[in-house]
Design brief:
The protein has 2 domains: 33 residues, no CATH class; 176 residues, Jelly Rolls (Sandwich), CATH 2.60.120. Strands 1, 3, 5, 6, 7, 9, 10, 11 and 13 form a 9-stranded antiparallel sheet that branches. The chain is mainly beta and 217 residues long.
């Protein structure tokens, strides 16, 4: 056991880092290659866009069969119009039209700063039933200097020509009436055509903020 311990210790630097030379085949000290699936995995940043008093942000390139899942991360989305919602839609024609038919569901948890209200409920007025409209990802973002939204949307296998296109989203919003609003949205684009573009915008007015698009293998 002492010999094994000394051998392992010889492959670690004084700062605790495993030396590359220790990775050869047969054991942790003899590995020369990793499984290809492990090497290819991970989260890849494809693009980043920043809105500055912009009407919308559209991702029209990079959504293809390379990845089975695409993630969009929203950072400091601040609307110019108080109480506007942050919305999204998908396209099958490279962004010429954002009008994919969707069926969706939404529920939320809410808590006011004053502690006067706390609730969790289903929001049947924000869901869609076979509609081509933009889907709300939250409700009532405040337009104050410190009010904003953050969260993510996951789009699964958008290049499939066999299945509908599922998505899930979770956002947290600084509401216009000083409350934390956590919204959960999910649904599917009811199309077997490949989704190749996605657009985000406010229900009214322009906005600031950054959206990152990642591919997941």
């Amino acid at each position: 056991m002492g010999t094994i311990t000394r051998s392992f210790a010889n492959n670690i630097t004084t700062s605790g880092v495993l030396l590359p030379a220790s990775l050869n085949n047969n054991s942790i000290s003899n590995v020369t290659a990793y499984n290809a699936a492990v090497a290819a995995g991970g989260m890849k940043l494809i693009s980043s866009q920043t809105a500055s008093n912009s009407a919308s942000i559209s991702f029209t390139t990079g959504i293809d069969s390379t990845y089975k899942e695409y993630q969009f991360w929203f950072i400091d989305i601040n609307p110019a119009t108080d109480t506007s919602t942050f919305d999204f839609n998908m396209s099958t024609d490279g962004g010429s039209n954002y009008n994919v038919t969707k069926t969706t569901t939404m529920f939320r948890a809410l808590h006011r700063e004053s502690d006067s209200e706390a609730q969790i409920d289903y929001l049947d007025g924000t869901d869609l039933a076979q509609s081509t409209a933009f889907q709300n990802l939250n409700l009532g973002t405040g337009s104050g200097a410190d009010e904003n939204l953050a969260g993510s949307l996951h789009l699964f296998n958008p290049s499939s020509t066999t299945y509908v296109k599922h998505f899930i989203s979770n956002t947290n919003t600084y509401r216009d009436f000083d409350a934390s609003h956590n919204a959960f949205v999910s649904g599917y684009g009811n199309t077997t055509s490949a989704i190749n573009a996605v657009q985000f915008k406010m229900s009214s007015g322009n906005f600031d903020g950054t959206i990152l698009m990642y591919g997941i293998k």
